[in-house]
Amino acid sequence: MSAVVPLLLPIDTKAPSLMAVELAAVVAPPIADEVLLLHVSEHPPRLDLLAELHALAEPIRDTGLPVRLRMVRGHPGERIPEVAVERNAKWILMGTSGEDFREGGGSTTHTVMRCSPVPVIAVRPGVPPARSRDPIALVGADTGHLARSVARVLAESHAVGIREFNPELRPLDGLPPGVSVRMTVAPFDPDGGMGTWCRTLLKTQPRPVLLVSGGERERVGDRAG
Amino acid sequence: MPVGYGPPEHNGAEPRGEHMEQSAVWEEMKSYVGFCDQRDRMLLHAVREPVAAEADALTDHFYAAVLRFPGARAVLANDAQVERLKESMTRFIEEMLTGPWDEAYLQKRRRIGQVHVRVGLPDRYMFTAMNLLRREICDIVRRHYGPSADLAWDTCHAITRVTDLELAVINAAYMEAHEQAQLRSLQDLIVQNLPVTVLCLDETGLVTSATRPSSRLFGGMAEVGRHYESFLPSELIEAADMPTAVGRALATGREISIPRVSLGQGSTRRHFRVVLVPLEHELARLLIHIEELTDVVHAEARVQQAEALARIGSLAAHMAHEIRNPLAAISATLQVVVGSLPTDDRRKPILGKVQGQVHRLDRLVTDLLGYARPARPTLREADIATLAREGIAQSGVPARVEVTDAGVALVDPEHVCQIMINLLQNAHDAAGPEGVVVVRVGPGPQIDILDDGPGIPADVADKLFEPFVTTKTRGTGLGLAISRKLVQAMDGCLDLLPASEPWPDGRGPGAHFRLGLTEPRRAEASTAP
Questions:
Q1: DSSP letter, residue B232
Q2: Each residue of B426-437: pLDDT tens digit?
Q3: How crowded is residue A206: how many other Cβ atoms within 10 Å of its Cβ?
Q4: Exposed, middle or buried, B51 (CB in 10 Å: 0-12/13-18/19+)?
Q5: A4 touches chain B (CB under 8 A)
Q6: A50 contacts in B (CB within 8 Å)?
Q7: What is the largest CA-CA distance in chain B?
Q8: Is the pLDDT of residue A13 over 50?
Q9: pTM of the complete model
Q10: What is the percent of chain B where pLDDT is above 70?
């Protein structure tokens, strides 16, 4: 019998977490067997919070994936990577306001991305797409095949295409004018400093932005193989 | 007696019957203090203006007097509150002097009484304050009419009657609160002593109520005010997936039952059923019922094992019967053949080996029949230390005996000896010729057999008492199965205990078996109808 592959979904009741839940309903089914909804707090859990988190996870349960709730004490930036290891999670998916990625930032999401031994998808909410057929934007995929995988799952789920942008070939000052996308996916290397174009994306893109960190790095040129 | 002074319904309306009863009681109270609506109305109305003219001074004087008492000061938060109370008191006096002293008046006074109870004002201050108020108003009346005027005298009587009514109503509120507190205390007492493990949690997860067994179930105290995570074992929370279950119960409003939660390993494994019931109450959002099923699970396992063993035993007995007759023929023939050979015949040792194997088969058949035969013990009271020594003597195994507070047990002595022989021979085989076997008798009706051998491998321990399971190369694997069967027929138990620390002399630990027997009194109780 193969081991259960969990996706760890750290959550609170703020807007970025709600976006992360919505995204988990799309991303989790092809990559995980269950979703571990994790709430980290310095305080013991209130019962009404448990009920609220259970209700929030409804879109994920609707996909047929089992959802389990875990309440852990401590600091989120430290405990989330630890729980990922304890629970043998293969992915972490979490919401972010984007504040973390500003220059000099470094709170929860950034800490998790730096410390996590498993890939992390951080989603910053945004406005819904202008058109239902808008593609998924994949920015700088030459440096991370996980971002490409995530983009592919999203594209298949929404039945749309992927449009690639390479900021190394053409400096990125936001996506080109007139380009309308559903959401933007980009690799993010927390050890390589704050990518200028990641911060640019967060600043300029009104649609949701997903930053993907961790996993094996793919060298430029390997992709053809 | 505050009959008919129960709290009003939530919608403000009261059942007609209760309304009538309250109305009747109110009229009875007025009659009792001699309050006459017509006469007293006239007298009280007449002093309304002079009293109102001195209301500020009256309330100042009143609160100055009241605030001298520390108990009264304790419930009055600050000057602003006192000023608000003075205004309320002015209205209170106005209403007292103008009426009408009807049902609505009664209800209003009841509410005032309930507020005084709720803020925790001791009733003695209420009585004192009402007397003070009466004196203050009567002083105004006397100044108004002249101290010796008949009208002053009659009016003061009317004021006494109406303040008596006020006191009666407020006193009823205190009595009612006292009765409710007693009732709550009784309910708490009943809940605490229910023989079930039940906890109630508020919305923050703190225990608001717990039965006494809840405090004993996991060793920690399920004290009111503690968070459930601080005393429920984290292993239980994890195994029962409590956060998920609690979230589901509260979000859906449905009862969630977790039929089996198992904690621990091996012989210390415990089993529980957990039920979560969402509640809609200010003090209780969730009820947790935890039922220990360890005994039930063990009993089920024993029944299943007994059924399986019975099937094996039946099959084994059938085969033993089939084998025994040809085996007897072979054995007899061998004896004849060996006896007919010359003493120095070279074939004799070979035939001796064949005889040895035939004897081994015969022993197996005997054991099989012994295992299959129903164990029907003849029970009597016997000293277990004596039985242990007899068992040691019959086994021929050199064992060290330690006796501590051993008593008598209700047993079949022959069965106990047979079990002792099996266990001691196993222990001796495991420990080897240089090894040590220890027999501990007591405390109570139990006998422990320990050896300093290599112990029982973990993969064998769980099925050690099943037939044909053995760690010996030449054993039949029936000794322990037969022993347990005999013990169970005596309502006792035979268990392999987990490996402990090495012995004080540095030896061991090897295998440690415990033979638990039944005390005579306990046996009688368990067989009583």
A1: S
A2: 999 988 888 899
A3: 10
A4: buried
A5: no
A6: 243, 246-247, 250
A7: 151
A8: yes
A9: 0.58
A10: 91
